[in-house]
UniProtKB/TrEMBL annotation:
Biological source species: Antrihabitans spumae
The protein, known as: Tn3 family transposase
Keyword Iron-sulfur (UniProt): no
Keyword Glycoprotein attributed: no
Swiss-Prot/TrEMBL keywords: DNA recombination, DNA-binding, Transposition
Recorded family membership: Belongs to the transposase 7 family.
Residue ranges of every copy of the Tn3 transposase DDE domain listed in the record: 586-973
All copies of domain DUF4158, residue ranges: 7-170
Record-linked Pfam families: DDE_Tnp_Tn3 (PF01526), DUF4158 (PF13700)
InterPro entries (alphabetical): DUF4158, Tn3-like_transpos, Tn3_Tnp_DDE_dom
């Protein structure tokens, strides 16, 4: 059983020491106290003393002692030898007799308070493993958790084969427990429905399982109806009343993942105890996803008609302007006559008629009607009425829209519209609410009433309901029960009872006071200090930031940053020293040092890895990162397409790619050369556009970037040039909604505390939330001088104390609103910080909310204060401005590297669904970070080589050297992947030799 989980080589690794030990572990576990030294010195010979010392340190470190004690990492052996005053070579003479090692281990365990496992320990371990196996099915993870459990109990870990068999038994027990917990849901009717998912449906031409897995690629009426059909099918299976919360979230996600990746044939061959839980969790997850997709398609479809109407309106307004040219020309001829006081009044009429009566009659008859407030937008939308009717009745019938108090009338109107569709009625009920209708459209309804045109009133009222519903979904005033993306915003927050327990802890964590008035007072001092700094700059009046003669703020451009003359030449020299390497070889080398491919684990929890798996994973990563795809990669690498397709399906998923990327980032963060680039506390984010081939729900037309349509990847880059976050977003979405996601979800060792963005990443809500989660937002805002600065307190105080900067603070913040909502603001921020919800689900809603939403309004007021403090600091500190600009430039350089790497197919994305696009984007991020890591490490070796040759380099110059280049890396041509051959090319230190050392 154990050998099916681990290969013989992997079992041997589990029995021995790791290849190396980190500096923190070295200090923690290999530091001997005076008592430890006395215990060690109680043994007679030097080999025994150093051997016992190794066992004494290894047991707390590993939880067991390997048989070959002499194979402890060199750093540990040297540290112990130095402490004991014994030559390191003495360790090679230790433990010739196995009984000696065993006796010493028994003494060490007794000295440290450890013990061998007994029956009670085995029972506790089994219970622990069963509880963990219900959550996680990965054998490797369970093995590590079991080892940590034994170590925390000071129980010596038995051999890996024994422990692996315990893990396997726990996984089997977890499968039985899973079925037991769900058995009450598996009625005969539901079992029949689940089995029906695996049968080919003659109407569909495929299985229902395959049908459910194929999402829409365009927001057309047909696509909406197709998704609604899926939703109704799932509801027939009872999904809307299906509660699988008896299983942990991780278990549900794991089972659903297997169901998505398995074929109908594979599932049908599984035992019922295994098959039904997979299918049950799959349809439960599908029910939520399909519901979200129907609402998303509704939003996109009605928004698409709005954009279409706006374009048509622009054309009509242009035609109207052309038609008005003759009238304007006539007016130009008439005005001079009317304004000339020397022309007698009696002659004015004669002169005007002389301009041409026919021309004047034509101008009069062609006079356009006066435009409504919206310039006729709703009237043009009315042309799309028949298009909207093709899917709106089905959407309203299938979706239960609900709302907050602010949307009560809109929800009532939605219910009445649904009733009109069902009854086939034509006229709007007399009591139908209209309070939700925007002021710019109210005139249409009034005109229809005045004209007693019931048909026109119905059309305009219906359009107002639909677009009010769309806007309500975006702001959170309208929500959908059972949805994840469009749920009631309050459901995302920490519960009130939990918040009462966590408030003080959270405030200590982020350095905030739980009292709103104290927060206002602290902000008041911060603001006055920031304004005082700006006052000094403006009083000087001779810098890039100054006041003009009218008292207007002038912000001059930053002068070009002074870069040492030798920086460019140095970069070329260093790059010339680096070895030339194919991309596949680079990934193999980086994997040897980081082990990132070990984090790309099978979705089904399988642990055993074939010798070819590493090769196949690297081929898949290259295929997606370069945009070649698996077919072209199969030809380039000589690996079968079927093998690559199976590998990518089961191993390349967002969670595994994130984990693999994190270990690369962490390794890069620890490199000495990385510290010369930055400390890892500052990061930035920006969107990068990629054109799209074919249709996708995430693709949009954006003429500035795409000929047809495209998508955006939103990436987070550290000041060390590593990318720690990647997200696929709609190209027309506001980037500001996604800024916090990857920072709060950062699983790397990067200690991010400050974040830079361009104008697209800035909103008042973001300024507030960054502060409330204990982070600093440092944007570069276009037209910063045009923002409205806020103050706290009377204007006269600022005018008196700051005569130059004070007049700029024209608005006053609503401090009473902030005080009233302060606790809710902290609770919202804590919900983000503790991972209860993803910020992007709520940031956009809060930014779009009306003033009726007091929490959103308070956040905007707090954000206005934080933005003003930032603006004063930004304008008064040139060094701060340069730091932000430098970091944003690092993000741009990473865009260029990704663009170079993503070269195939003209860089056009070909994967149509969001999940697939996300996986490809993460493949690109992993490979990009591998290049950055390799470049950084070899640049460091080149710098060290120059220093050893008597040519040291100043760190101030090295700070201007970027690893975001790929000159030494070959992307093109055939891509043979031979892991063993590539590793054999490394020298004894594990690196390739540098080039041009003599020069």
């Amino acid at each position: 059983m154990a050998t099916r989980t681990y290969s013989d080589a992997e079992l041997e690794q589990l029995r021995g020491f790791p290849d190396s030990i980190g500096p923190d572990e070295l200090i923690r576990y290999f530091t001997l106290t005076a008592g430890d030294v006395a215990f060690v010195n109680s043994h007679r010979t030097p080999p025994n003393r150093i051997g016992v010392a190794v066992q004494l340190c290894s047991l707390p470190w590993l939880g067991f002692v390997p048989d070959r004690v002499d194979r402890v990492p060199d750093a540990g052996a040297r540290r112990l030898a130095e402490r004991l005053g014994i030559p390191v070579a003495a360790l090679a003479e230790y433990g010739g007799r196995e009984q000696t090692r065993t006796d010493h281990l028994r003494e060490v365990a007794e000295f440290l308070g450890w013990r061998s496992a007994g029956d009670l320990d085995f029972k506790e371990l089994d219970q622990f493993l069963l509880a963990r196996a219900i959550e996680h099915d990965s054998p490797g993870l369970l093995f590590r958790l079991a080892s940590e459990h034994l170590r925390s109990s000071r129980v010596i870990r038995p051999g890996p084969v024994w422990l692996t068999e315990r893990v396997a038994a726990a996984r089997q027990a977890a499968q039985i427990e899973t079925y037991t917990r769900l058995e009450h849901l598996l009625t005969p009717r539901r079992r029949s429905g689940l089995d029906g998912l695996l049968d080919v449906d003659t109407e569909l031409g495929s299985t229902r399982l395959h049908w459910l897995s194929n999402g829409a690629t365009t927001a057309s009426p047909e696509a909406i109806k197709s998704e609604i059909a899926k939703l109704r099918f799932l509801r027939d299976l009872g999904v809307d009343h299906l509660d699988v919360s008896v299983l942990p979230v991780e278990r549900r996600r794991y089972l659903a993942g297997i169901g998505r990746r398995s074929t109908a044939q594979m599932l049908s061959r599984r035992d019922p105890e295994r098959r039904y839980p997979i299918l049950l969790t799959l349809i439960a997850q599908s029910g939520v996803e399909v519901l979200d997709e129907v609402v998303q398609l509704f939003d996109q479809a009605v928004s698409g008609r709005e954009s279409h109407a706006r374009n048509k309106l622009a054309d009509r307004l242009a035609e109207r302007a052309v038609a008005a040219e003759d009238r304007l020309a006539l007016l130009d001829a008439m005005l001079p006559v009317l304004l000339d006081s020397t022309v007698p009044d009696a002659e004015v009429g004669t002169i005007l008629r002389g301009l041409g009566m026919q021309r004047m009659r034509a101008a009069h008859s062609g006079a356009p009607t006066r435009l409504p407030r919206d310039r006729g937008h709703l009237a043009v939308l009315d042309d799309s009425f028949s298009y909207l009717r093709r899917f709106v009745p089905d959407v309203l019938d299938a979706i239960d829209f609900r709302g907050t108090d602010a949307a009560a009338d809109l929800i009532t109107a939605t219910a009445q519209l649904r009733g009109l569709y069902v009854a086939g009625a034509r006229n709007v009920p007399p009591n139908a609410p209209v309070s939700f209708v925007p002021a710019r459209w109210r005139g249409y309804l009034d005109d229809a009433v005045a004209a007693q045109d019931a048909t026109a009133y119905r059309h305009y009222w219906e359009l107002c309901v639909l677009y009010g519903l769309r806007d309500g979904l975006r702001s959170g005033d309208v929500f959908v029960p059972g949805s994840r993306r469009y749920a009631d915003p309050t459901s995302y927050l920490i519960s009130g009872d939990q918040w009462q327990l966590q408030r003080q802890e959270y405030c200590r964590l982020v350095g905030k006071t739980p009292d709103g008035r104290d927060a206002i007072e602290h902000a008041r001092h911060e603001l006055r200090d920031a304004v005082a700094a700006l006052e000094e700059v403006l009083a000087a009046g001779d810098g890039a930031v100054r006041l003009d003669d009218k008292g207007e703020l002038v912000i001059g451009p930053l002068t070009a940053e002074t870069v040492p003359d030798e920086a460019d030449a140095l970069r070329d020299d260093l790059v010339a020293m680096l070895p030339r390497i194919p991309l596949a070889s680079l990934l193999i080398e980086v994997d040897r040092r980081t082990g990132f491919t070990d984090l790309l684990v099978h979705a089904g929890g399988k642990q055993a890895r074939s010798p070819e798996l590493k090769r196949n994973l690297i081929a898949c990563l290259i295929g997606f990162a370069t945009n070649m795809g698996l077919t072209a990669m199969a030809h380039a690498s000589g690996i079968s397409y079927d093998v690559l397709a199976w590998t990518s399906e089961w191993y390349l998923r967002e969670p595994t790619l994130r984990a693999g990327n994190a270990v690369i980032v962490d390794y890069h963060h620890g490199l000495p050369m990385s510290q010369r680039f930055g400390s890892g506390t500052l990061s930035s984010s920006d969107g990068q556009r990629f054109p799209m081939r074919g249709k996708s729900l995430t693709a949009r037309h954006l003429s500035r970037y795409f000929v047809d349509e495209g998508i955006s990847t939103y990436t987070h880059v550290s000041d060390q040039h590593s990318t720690y976050g990647t997200k696929i977003i709609v190209a027309t979405d506001r980037e500001a909604h996604y800024v916090l996601d990857e920072i709060l979800g950062n699983a790397t060792d990067l200690p991010i505390t400050e974040h830079a963005v361009d104008t697209g990443g800035v909103t008042l809500v973001n300024f507030a939330l960054f502060d409330l989660v204990g982070l600093t937002l440092s944007p570069r805002i276009r037209n910063l001088g045009r923002i409205v600065p806020y103050r706290l307190g009377p204007r006269r105080d600022y005018l008196a104390d700051y005569p130059h900067a004070g007049p700029l603070l024209t608005a006053i913040a609503g401090d009473e609103l902030i005080v009233a909502e302060w606790d809710n603001m902290l609770r919202l921020a804590a919900s983000f910080k503790y991972g209860h919800t993803t910020p992007s689900l709520l940031v956009g809603k809060l930014s779009a909310s009306s003033r009726q939403n007091r929490l959103a309004a308070a956040l905007k007021e707090w954000g206005a204060i934080r933005r003003t403090i930032f603006a004063c600091r930004y304008l008064s500190d040139e060094t701060y401005r340069r730091k932000i600009g430098r970091q944003l430039n690092k993000g741009e350089s990473m865009h260029a590297l990704r663009r170079d790497l993503h070269f195939a197919g003209l860089g056009k994305m070909t994967r149509h669904h969001h999940e697939q696009q996300t996986e490809q984007a993460w493949c690109l991020t992993v490979v990009t970070n591998a290049i950055i890591c390799w470049m950084t490490e070899y640049l460091g070796l080149a710098v060290d080589a120059r220093g050893a040759a008597g040519q040291p380099i100043d760190d101030a110059v090295l700070a201007h050297i970027s690893p975001a280049h790929s000159e030494p890396v070959h992307f093109f041509g055939s891509i043979p992947i031979d892991v063993d051959k590539e590793l054999a090319q490394l020298d004894a230190t594990g690196y390739r030799p540098l080039r041009n050392l003599d020069t």
